[in-house]
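task queued by scheduler; priority normal; single chain, no ligands, no partner chains; default sampling; output format set to structure tokens
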Amino acid sequence: MQNEREAAADQLFTARTTARYATDVARGVNLVAATVAGTTAPFTGITPAELAPEVEAIDLDAPLEAADAALEELARVYLRDAVYFHDTKYAAHLNCPVVIPALVGEAILSAVNSSLDTWDQSAGATLIERRLIRWTADRLGLGGRADGVFTSGGTTSNLQGLLIARNQAVAKLRVDPRHEGQRLPALLDGLRIFTSEASHFSIAKSASLLGLGYDAVVPVPCDSRRRMDSEALRTALETSIARGETPMAIVATAGTTDFGSIDPLPAAATLARSYDIWLHVDAAYGGGLITSLKHRHLLRGISAADSVTVDYHKTFFQPVSSSALLVRDAAMLGHVTFYADYLNPESAARELIPNQVDKSLQTTRRFDALKLWLTLRLMGADGIGHLLDAAVDLAADVSGLLAVDPDFDLAAPAQLSTLVFRYLPPGMDDESADAANRYIRKALFASGEAVVAGTTLADRHYLKFTLLNPETTLEDIREILALIRTAGQDYLAAAAGVAA
């Protein structure tokens, strides 16, 4: 028993075990480096049925004796078959290859293990996070009273933004004599959120979590480029008010998941001011444009937002997770403040002790800000911008390629770095195209040679490129299109054989 206890203690990272820590982490880093260096495709094509037995066969109650053995096993059940976003044939979801300074930050923050809830657990980490929030707010143009907090992702950031909007709307209702004595559930009944029909699902999910219900979200029609139609928004607001409802928030999207479309932000801001409504901008995807050297103008109008979501783990090339919720007025973060004597007593706030939990939905939080800090210190904002601009420019080139190819139907021109299209050679009807494109996506994933996404538009199945790798070339895309074309032809040949 004593030997087992000593062996366990030897695995703790302390001043006594720093040499072991350095050696074992180096082994892990070297394994990843060797694996990535040897990958020639984004995926192996393995199926859950093939991989699951290997994972299930491992006895978690029989630990291995050495780090080398554990890493060898890990290579077999994870690294060998991981989906590698760094590969130039990965073009599916909003996953980016990550920059090396951020990986250095990841290693440091995991080892020190600061928790960003109170000053006495994080010290300098708190100040670094606050400095990065200020940097982001300045780049967004939110003004000197702005503030914010890092979160785990865009869904959490959107939830917090809409929670603040809900509480602001409720505070206005409470001063109306008609609502005297009503508790929160009754005050929520008529609140409405207005967002484009192409907005992220987390808006509807947030409405449900906030006690409003999914039907509190009013979907606003989009124009031909999948941007929220400003006149349709105005009409929706007026119709809602005429029904006796209370518009709570307008949610504009700066970079929709499918089309990368950016809603007309100046028009949304004008309407929000006219109707005295909270304006939240979901810039989880498009927020990286604050670093762009060529396309930053696409965010024109975002400075008028009351709150903004930015995901650094999308277009800032940071490892998951790294996001933030920014607000124009720091006082609005008080809507999530709760003082606990055992953690962040109110007396600490009076003493101006910077406890980040005072402004966060989360309590324990990783020091994810360190990754962006080291990225900016080693690359600068322009370095990030150059990488993002390469992806956006590639999408524009691919858009042109698809637009003139008779075998493909492009749903909309490139706006950021996503493209929605389908295999639709001359003579193919819509139903056959649906089946063919579903087959194509599965066939490519099963081959492991390329990974593309899929979506639906007007009940039709489409393929989707999400281009976030600055090293992907037009030739890489041509090769993926050739694979798509071949898979489509295989489907047609098989369908013809069945028909015969």
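post-processing summary
- The chain is about 45% helix and 15% strand.
- The CA atoms of residues 41 and 449 lie 5 Å apart.
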